[in-house]
TrEMBL record:
Name listed for the protein in its UniProt record: NEIL1 Endonuclease
Domain Endonuclease VIII-like 1 DNA binding: 162-200
A Pfam family hit: Neil1-DNA_bind
Region (Disordered) location: 191-303
Amino acid sequence: PRHAHLRFLTRESPPRALCFVDPRRFGSWRLGDAWQPERGPCVVSEYQAFRGNVLKNLGDRAFDKPICEALLNQKYFNGIGNYLRAEILYRLKIPPFEKARTVLEALKDQEQERRKKDPSLTLSKKVKLKQENPDLLELCHTVPMEVIMAEKQLFDPEHSDNYAAFKNWLQCYLVPGMSSLRDRNGRTIWFQGEAGPMAPKGQRPRKTPRKKSPQLKADPEAPTPKVTPRALKKHRRAAANPPKSEEKEEEKAEEADRPRKGRALRRRKATAAPALPEPEVPLSIRRSRRTSARRGKGAAPAV
């Protein structure tokens, strides 16, 4: 597979491979049969030792930090990573920046009270109570176990939808609608509700955006039209002078087709009364009119 930095091949045919896959190169490989000295008991395979190691060392300065930062301390929470801490705190509704010692000392007190009240509880009843009301240390064991038990469905590379199944399993980490902040180590923690009294100052919780409704995508092969200055001017003129409604245009067309009242009346009069011939004027009268007109055009007589 990709990012397999170390491969052990079997001698069978066809060979199988045991690979160390690390896309971000966070890990390292050392020969040996035990955890590194700075790591505590495993939260999955050594649960009782892990629980005792945490409750026994609550005076350590590591528990002066917020609970979200303490959960990444591999000396006490060996195996808990970024997405697991978000899921664990979300299920218990614990603010991520609550002081770690405050959260864990409450578990210690609850455990002592439970033993005093019900010393005769059978193992099956104790298991049932823990399943119904798990505490933070129990979820540090059961939540990773959920991932391990569902590994074939969540992480099997042969399943094409393995990442989709993992995303459906997540309840808080990278889930839309959740808030997020960066802790003092630069790691992002997702949560819901209040951040807690030890939240870093100067930061505001960011909301993970919700999914938008699907929209029609433009054809990538379609050429984008070029916008020229002339086209921009036309667009501005059209916006400044919006086209009139269709009804007004139709009314104008009808008015153009209708005959005007004045013209129609004249046509009617012309057809009703035919023009009469003009009376003939005698020749002597016409000559006298011409001579008078000529005299009027000339200069005025001297007085």
